[in-house]
Amino acid sequence: MKRVTIYGVALAAIALVFAAGIGSAWLLQPKQRALTQSDIDSAVLHTLHNKDLPSRAARAAEAIRQSVVEVRSYPAAETPAEKSRADKGGRDRPAKPPESSAPAKRGPRDETAKGKPPGTPGPHAEKGAPEALPDGRHIGTGVVVTESGVILTNYHVVAGARRVEVRFHDGHTAEAAVLQAVPEKDLAILQPKSIPDDLPPATLGSSRELAPGSEVVAVGFPFGIGPSVTAGVVSGLDRQFVSPDEKQQLDKLIQFDAAANPGNSGGPLVNMKGEVVGIVTAILNPNQSGNFLGIGFAITIESAGGSVGASPF
To answer: In this structure, what DSSP letter does residue 204 have?
Structure first.
């Protein structure tokens, strides 16, 4: 009995010594210093100096890249008389471009129109026409806005077309039907017959958060080249122009200076979060050159959603 007691006392003593050693080691450990703002700033500066980071525009473009599609419209077939004239000429007659609304003669409502009475013609504004290719196709741009592949684009990209195709980011091509057209707002909704697996829809933002000077990116297929990315800033808000016959009026437009050319029509205007805030629709052309001279216009995503009968939010 005494032997068992001695063993118990010895074990207890050993346990106490072990616990005391652990406690001493823990107490002697240096305390961790709390991070200060200076530490965080130094770490950020070190990263910036030693690693190349993508620009804000690059990150915004990458966020939208898989949702941007090339829209190919094939004009209506030639009449027998047109085909006969083309055959007599010994060459194929160029395809007729899709119909679109007449270019506006009244410029944007901004400083260039100050002092002029309402309706006075200003700088020449026109729709950014789709790019015509040698085989008769016309190229525009669209953006996927739902998981089922619904595409938002400009009406003038598909107007008068006998057939519409879309090409997705992975090269998948499908014929598309025009689900809804809103000519007075230059908007159209397309539904492709097939879509790639895991096709991501674009994230829709709000143009209400924009201000003159806000950075934006335009993604599209100018002259059939793309997807191409251009970057700039919002030049103005709440712009408008009216067609010469006053049958069409586009208002609440975003004015921007990211380059847009034929083929950009229907493409997304994106903020630095990668959110769609507008649909590229027109450029300003005082000399009617048809090419970008520094001022483009986009329909706000709110107007686009409202015109097709659905809120984007």
So the answer is: B
- Give residue for tokens 């616990």: 19
* Per-residue model confidence as pLDDT tens digits over 17-26: 666 666 666 5
pLDDT digits (tens, 9 = 90+) for 122-153: 344 555 556 656 555 689 999 999 999 999 99
Catalytic annotation present for 52? no
Burial letters 47-79, b for 16+ CB under 10 A, else e: eeeeeeeeeebeebbebbebbbbbbbbbbeebe
DSSP string of 77-143?
PPPHHHHHHHHHTTSPPPPPPPP-PPPBSS--SSGGGTTPPTT---S-EEE-PPEE-TTS-EEEEEE
- Known catalytic residue at 265: yes
Catalytic member of 73, 100, 124, 156: 156
114 has which bridge partners?
none
Annotated catalytic residue 197 = no
